[in-house]
Amino acid sequence: MSSGKTVALSKYAQHKYGIAAQSLVDFEVGVNCGCALLAIAGADGQLAEAEFQWYIDEQEMVAVDSEAFQEYIEILRKFDWKNANLEELLSQIKFNFPLNFRYSLLYQAIKMSRADGFYHEKEKAAVAKAAEILGVDSTVVVSLESVAEMEDTADRLRIALFETKA
Q1: d(Cα 157, Cα 80) in Å, to the nearest integer?
Q2: Do the Cβ atoms of 6 and 57 come closer than 8 Å?
Q3: Are 41 and 123 in contact (CB under 8 A)?
Q4: pLDDT at site 143
């Protein structure tokens, strides 16, 4: 049952994910997505600060800041990802706008899991399990992993070309 709370999406969400700016995400759906991602990225036994921070940074760009958004972030900070039921979380995710949330969620899980510089075998297994639960073929997962790797490589190349000392 929905509380009626929503989080509005930004222009960045339109640019990055193809979702119309100002689309509304049901609060509980967003929480379930975020919690599922925390469980996947923590599958190696730790949720690295870099992984969590990647997700927070991404959400700060994707969502319009609001009281509901701040509450969402606070719930994620307190979530017990070690004892999460991934199947239960994933079964409660349904968006009311056009988005292949299954692919998008797996993409974010991969990006988040790689954010600490290492995509652990247990994280890969958790992504594969999530894909199975969501009915996504393993070839799509390989493609999403490749996209994430290409993006990371392109980012490093761009920064190197700009001679940034980051």
Answers
A1: 37
A2: no
A3: yes
A4: 98
